[in-house]
Amino acid sequence: MLITCPYCGPRDLSEFSYQGDGNRTRPDPASTDQAEWNDYVYDRINVAGDHNEIWQHAGGCRAHLAVVRNTLTHKITSVGFARDAGHKKSDGHRRTGAHS
Amino acid sequence: MSPRRSQSGGRVDRTRTIRFTFDGRPFTGHAGDTLASALLANGVTLFGRSFKYHRPRGVLTAGIDEPNALVTVLHGEVREPNTPATMLEIYDGLTVVSQNRFPTLAFDFGAANQLGGKILGAGFYYKTFMGPVFGPLKGTRFWMFCEYFIRRAAGLGRAGIASDPARYERMNAFCDVLVVGSGPAGLMAAKAAADSGARVILAELEPKFGGTANWLGETIDGVAAAEWASTMTRDLKARDNVRLLPRTTVWGYYDDNSIAALERVTDHKSAPGKGEPRHRHWSVRAGSVVLATGAFERPLVFPGNDRPGVMLAGAAERYANEFGILPGQKIALFLNNDGAYRAASAMRKAGAEIAAIVDMRGEISEAAREIADEAGGELLRGHAVVATEGGRHVSGIKVQKFDLASGSLSGEARHLDADCLLVSGGWSPVIHLASQAGMKPEWNEPLQAFLPPKPTQNWVGAGAFNGRFTTAEALAEGHAAGLSAAGLPGGAASVPEVESVALDAHPAPVFEIRAKGKAFVDYQHDVTADDVRLAYKEGFVSVEHLKRYTTLGMATDQGKTSNVPGIAIMAEALGKLIADVGTTRFRPPFSPVSLGALAAERYGDLKPERLTPMHDWHLENGAAMYAAGLWYRPMIYGLAGETVEQAYIREAKTTREAAGIVDVSTLGKIAVQGPDAADFLDRVYTNVFSTLAVGKARYGLMLREDGIALDDGTTWRLGNDDFLMTTTTANAGKVMQHLEYLLDVVWPDLKVQLTSVTDQWAGAAVGGPKAREILASCVTGTAVDNEALPFMGIVHGEIAGVPVMICRLSFSGEMAFEVYSGAGHGMHVWEALIEAGKPSGMVPYGLEALGTMRIEKGHVTGAEIDGRTTGRDLGLDWMLSKKKPFVGSMMMDREGLIAEDRVRLVGVISLDNRPLKGGAHIVEEVNEKEPKNSIGHITAVCYSPSLGKYIGLALVKGGKARIGTRAFISDPLRDRFGPVEIVSNHFFDPEGKRMHG
C-alpha cells in the first residue's frame, strides 16, 4: 500500500503507523459528560468501504495524516494533514446506531 | 521399456557431463538438465512415494506444476525438502534423496496402506481416532496419542533441524513495467515496453527465457522459435532500461502494484560465487504489470492415472524437444483435445513408436487426423483409458469404448502394450496472480477453463494467460500488452510470423473416466475422485469446504494440476455447472518461498543495538550486560567469585553506606518547548507543571485516554518555555507518539515543539550519603550545597572542563544527583565522577542494585505500570490533580476503576527467609495440590540488604486494608509456596529523610 504524504510524496506503508479511527472527536477537555468520553475512547465504527483514518508518517516527517481508505479495496482517495481535517472540537459526525 | 536420452536433439550441452547422486546412487547428466530430465535420461522413473497411500510416483510434468516428483536436496546437514525435480537444475556434487519411503524407495513398508485404501478415504483419521473411547484415552486425547504415528506414516519431505548457513538477501526495485513470464507473449511485451523507454523488469521462473518457444518446435520470424527467443533475450539484456531476472518466481501481488518475487540465485551451483546469496527476495513496485504467465496442462482423472510412466503430453513434448529425452519407447496418448496431437508428432520425430492415440471424442479435426496418420499407431476415437497396468511402471493400458455425450463406457476392455502414457485434459491459464489482484475468475465454457478476472489493480494479461493458446496470438497480445502497460496507444503492429500446425485448443468437457480403481485428482495429497464425491455425500458441498475436508489443492503445489478437475467432479456431483460452483481464490505464495529469503539479513546478531556513551567503560569494568529492549545496560559489576545476588547486595549496601553511581543515559528524554509548553504539560500530566519554577524538576504521572497509567518520570523546567521531560527507558517511543498525536491531531493550536533528545544526553546518577561531597569535589562553576541545589533543584556547572546540568532527584532514596552532559562528553564526565568518588569508596552499580533500592523505596516501574493499573492502584492518588482536566481524568474514576476490590500496590516480606518469585500469585490460603483463588501477584522481588530480608512489591486486592496481615505466595509452576506478610510498599526510610538530607 502507498500513502502519499503531503510533505514527502508517495511512500510505502512500512513508513507509516496507524493511529486509529479518524471519525472520533475528542470532547472539550473540561467536559464531564461521561457518555461523550466513552464514545471517544471506545466506540468505533467498522466501515466496509471508505473510512476516515489517522496515520502517522512515523518513518518520515512524523506528521499525522487524515487518510480516507477503502477497507475493502485499500484504495486511498484522500490524504491531508490531520490537524487541518477538523478532528478537533467540531460537530464531527458521530456514529449512529453504533450501540448494540 | 524405459525412457532414455535420444541420439540427438534437445538443447542440453552434451559435451558437458555433470555428476550427482540420487538416494546414494551416482548418476550423470548434462549441462541444461533438470534432475527430472537427467534421471529420465538414466531410465529412472520412480521418484517418490505418495503422501497417504505410499503409491509409487514418477514425473508428471516438466515444470513448477509438478505434484509427484518431489525430492529432498541435501547440503551437508541442511535439508531442503519438497523440491520439484522438474525445477531442480543439476550441478556437480548435487545430492538428492527421495521422500516418504522406508526403508527404500523401491521397497517401502508404508505401501501396505494401499491395501487399506478403501477405508483410508477423506477424513478417515479424524473420524476413526477422534470419537471413540479406547480405555483411558477418550476423544481428542486418543487422537493426540495416535497423531504422532499417523503423522510419521503420512507426509512428504522431512524438514531438517540443522541451522542453515546460507546467506539470503532482500532487494527493493522500482519499474514502469514488470513483465511476469518470458514466453513469446512476455518477450514481446518486454520489448514493446522497453522500446518506449520505460524501465522494464522481466521475471522468469525458469533458468532460460523464452518459455514454450524453447520446446514447441515452431518457427518464429523464419528461425527456430528457441533461437528467436535467445535473440530477443540478448537484445533486451543489452538495454540499460531492462533488468532480466531469471529463476525468479513472482509469488505475491499486493496493494498498489507491490510485487513479491523470489530469485533462486545459486541453487543451481555447486558453490555460490563471491558475495552471492542463495535466494534473493524482491519487493518490486511496478507502475503496471504484464501477466504473461501461460497455462498449465491438466491431467485426466482415470484409474491408475498416477502410475510412473503417465505424463502430461505437453511435458513429454518439452522433454523431447528441450532435453532430448524420450519418456518411453512405445508411447500411448490419451486426450480430449486436438492440441495434444502435437506431442504425438514430437515423440515420433524423436524416435519413439506410437502405440495408440486414445481420443475420447468421436470427431476430430482434419489437422489432428493428419498428425495421427503421420505418427503411426492406432487412432482410437470414442475410446477412453480405464486402467494402467504394471507395477512401479506402466507396462500397458486398458481401453474401452466411450460415449462422450453420456459419459458411459461400453464393450470389452482391450489391452494395449505401452511403456508410457501421455495424457491431456486441456489447459488452465495460470491466473494465480490475477486472482490475487482481481475479482472472481470467470469460467469459459468453450475452453473449459477459468479465465483471468477483471483486474482490481493495474495489470494487463497476454497470451495463454488469457486463454489465447497459439504462439501467433501470444506474440500479438504480448506486443499490445507491452504498449498498453507503458501507456502507449496500440497500433498496427508488425508482429513476427509463426509457422506452426493449426490445432484447436478447445477440449471436450470431460475431466474424469469413471471405472473401477483409484483415480487421482490431487496427486500430491492423494485425493481421489471418490474422496471428492465422499465430501459431497457428507455435506461439504462448497468449494471452500471441499478443499478443507479433502485437502484438495492444499499441498505445496497448491493444486496447480488438480484445481479444475476437482471442481468439475464436485460440480457433477452437485448437478451444477462449473461456472456456478466457482473456484477458490488463489492466495500467495504462488509456489513455496524460503523463509530465509523473507527474513534475509534481519535475524540473530544483526538486531540493532543501542549503547550508552559509557558502554565500553562498563565492559572494561566487569559489568554483566543486560538487554533492556534494544538497550544494553549493566546488570551487575561482579567481582571475582561473586554471585549475582552477592554483587547487587554489595552494590546497594555500599551505595546506602557511602555512594554509588549508575548510568541512566537510557531514560527517554523529550524536549518540550514553546510558549504553550507548560499548558501542554498540564494537559498530559495528572499533576500541575505550570506552577513549576524555572530551575526545578517535578515528578509526573501520565495516563492514557482511558484512565489507565501510561508512564512516569521527572520533567525539568530549564526555562519559561523550555522543559526536558524524562520517560522510562521502555516507554520513550510510546510516550513520544502519544504526545505527538495529541499535539498534531487534538490540539494543533498549541504552540509546542517536541524533540526526542534521548541520544543527545548522557546521564549518570550519583547517590548515597557521600554523594554531595563527591560532587562538590569535582563540579566547578556552581555550588552544590543545599541552598544552591535543594531537593528537585537544577544547576549548571562544569565537570573536568565540560558543561553539565545537575538535578537533585532520587530514585534510590538516597541523597542523589543526576548529572547530564552532552552524549559526546558522557564518558569523560563519567570517568571524572568515578575518579572523584574513589576517596569515598563509591561503587558503580547496575540494574539489579537499582531495582533493589527502588523496591525498598516502593517506587513503581513498568512491572507495576503494566497497562492495567490506574494511578490509584499504584498508590499515587496524591498526584491526581482536582484543579484541572488532564488526559484520562474523566475516565479514571469510572465505577470499575475505583472499586474497593481492585489490586493496590503493597509490599510483601518473605516469612520463610526464602527468595520470592516475580509473577507468583498471592493467595489467602495455601493449597499446593489445588491452588486457591488469587488475590494478586508479585511484580518485583529482591533481597533487601537494608532489611536483611527477602522482599517484593505486589498488586493485591484490597491493598492497604491487608497491611499487617499474613498471606501466601503460590507459584505451582515453579513450586514455590510459603507465607508472606503484607506491608506498606515504603519499606525503607518512609519519611524520605535521607534524600532530603
Structure description:
The complex is a heterodimer of chains A (100) and B (997). With 100 residues, chain A is mainly beta. Chain A contains one helix and six strands. Chain A has one helix spanning 34-41, and strands at residues 2-5, 9-12, 17-21, 50-56, 64-70, 76-81. In chain A, the strands form two sheets. Chain A has a four-stranded antiparallel beta sheet with strand order 3-4-5-6, with no helix packed on it. The model of chain A is unreliable at 87-100 (pLDDT under 50). With 997 residues, chain B is of the alpha+beta class. Chain B is 22% helix and 30% strand. In chain B, the strands form 15 sheets. In chain B, strands 11, 12, 15, 16, 17, 18 and 32 form a seven-stranded mixed beta sheet that branches. A seven-stranded mixed beta sheet of chain B has the order 45-46-47-48-44-38-49. In chain B, strands 50-53-52-51-54-55 form a six-stranded antiparallel beta barrel. In chain B, a hairpin with a 4-residue loop joins strand 54 (966-971) and strand 55. In chain B, helix 17 (644-657) packs across helix 22 (847-857).
Describe how the helices and strands are arranged.
The complex is a heterodimer of chains A (about 100) and B (about 1000).
Chain A lengths: L1 E4 L3 E4 L4 E5 L12 H8 L8 E7 L7 E7 L5 E6 L19
Antiparallel strand pairs in A: 1-2, 3-4, 4-5, 5-6
Chain B lengths: L3 E2 L7 E10 L2 E7 L3 H7 L6 E2 L6 E2 L12 E6 L2 E7 L9 E4 L26 H7 L2 E2 L2 E2 H15 L14 E13 L3 H12 L4 E4 L15 E2 L2 E2 H13 L4 E4 L2 E7 L3 E7 L14 E13 L3 E3 L12 E3 H11 L1 E2 L3 E6 L5 H10 L2 E7 L6 H10 L2 E4 L1 E7 L6 E8 L4 E10 L2 E5 L2 E3 L2 H5 L5 E3 L4 E3 L7 E3 L9 H15 L12 E2 L20 E3 L4 E2 H9 L5 H8 L12 H12 L3 H4 L13 H5 L15 H6 L2 E6 L2 E7 L6 H14 L2 E4 L4 E6 L3 H8 L12 E7 L5 E11 L2 E6 L4 H15 L6 E4 L4 E7 L3 H8 E2 L13 E6 L2 E6 L8 E7 L3 H12 L5 E2 L2 H11 L45 E8 L10 E3 L10 E11 L4 E9 L8 E6 L4 E8 L9 H4 L1
